[in-house]
Design brief:
MetI-like fold, globular, about 280 residues, 2 domains, 14 helices, single chain, mainly alpha
């Protein structure tokens, strides 16, 4: 009986690892194609065959980018200012709102959370026209603030933080802090936020990637090339009326994706620590 259970367990692990490996390869494959295509020319990319061998046109693609209105330094700076600021606002105010929904028992708590969930179902494109008109009337177009300040109201972030607090936030600890005379913001900043590092890291990745990859609102609001973000610059490369150099586009896409990898690998250790802590608690 022990041999049958042992062999079945080994077979299950082999199947599970095989499936995970295949899924990992499928996830990595688009990035591999992107890295290979940035070394190829436009005719090679437009060819019918898919090649996994790098070509010799990498320097040519760099020269093409230099000859166009693609300024990676300006794009990185603008994207980082917008994404980092929006991410910080999203994390702090989402956690603060979730804390108000969990730590306090007030009359309109459930309707307020229902309203937040209803707002989350509204696509951003529906409110985009009205938001642009409002920003235009108050003279806030071609400005980073309309792309940063709305990040304070992130329904998805509130929902995620609330679910994490329901499972991991000890309310008795908050009561003990109040008995000791700690103010509410002190309790939130010094006790609640440190306990939420795994949730903050996870939501931080999502918020940063979403803000970094945003194209619709920057395209509508930003009119000066000095304020263009990286995705907007890449989109302008694809919209060349004369000829689209796909090798240069893939090179620009690679440059755009690199900061996302840095952010993910910088915060992934907190996610792993949170998963391990949850397993110990369970």
């Amino acid at each position: 009986m022990r041999r049958k259970i042992s062999s079945g367990h080994v077979a299950f692990r082999i199947i599970a690892y095989t499936v995970c490996l295949l899924l990992a390869l499928l996830s990595i494959f688009p990035f591999v194609i992107m890295l290979i295509n940035m070394t190829r020319s436009t005719p090679e990319i437009q060819g019918a065959t898919l090649s996994l061998i790098p070509s010799t046109h990498f320097m040519d693609n760099i020269q093409i980018l230099d000859g166009k209105s693609f300024n990676a330094i300006i794009g990185f700076k603008n994207s980082f200012i917008i994404s980092a600021s929006a991410t910080l606002l999203t994390l702090y105010f989402s956690a603060l709102t979730a804390h108000a929904l969990i730590a306090y028992n007030w009359k309109m708590r459930k309707p307020f959370f229902t309203f937040i969930m209803a707002v989350m179902m509204i696509p951003a494109q529906i409110t985009g026209i009205g938001f642009f008109q409002f920003m235009y009337k108050i003279g806030m177009t071609n400005n980073f603030l309309p792309l940063i300040i709305p990040a304070m109201a992130a329904p998805a972030g509130v929902f995620f933080m609330r679910q994490f607090m329901l499972a991991s936030l000890p309310l008795d600890l908050l009561e003990a802090a109040r008995i000791d005379g700690a103010h509410e913001f002190y309790t939130f900043n010094r006790i609640v936020l440190p306990l939420m590092k795994p949730a903050l890291a996870t939501q931080g990745i999502f918020a940063f990637v979403t803000s970094w990859n945003a194209l619709f609102m920057p395209m509508v609001l930003l009119t000066s090339s000095a304020n263009y973000t990286m995705p907007l610059m890449v989109q302008l490369l694809r919209g060349d009326i004369y000829k689209t150099e796909y090798g240069a586009v893939y090179l620009a896409l690679t440059m755009t994706v690199l900061p996302l990898f840095i952010v993910y690998f910088s915060l992934s250790k907190y996610i792993i620590a949170g998963v391990a802590l949850g397993g110990v608690k369970g």
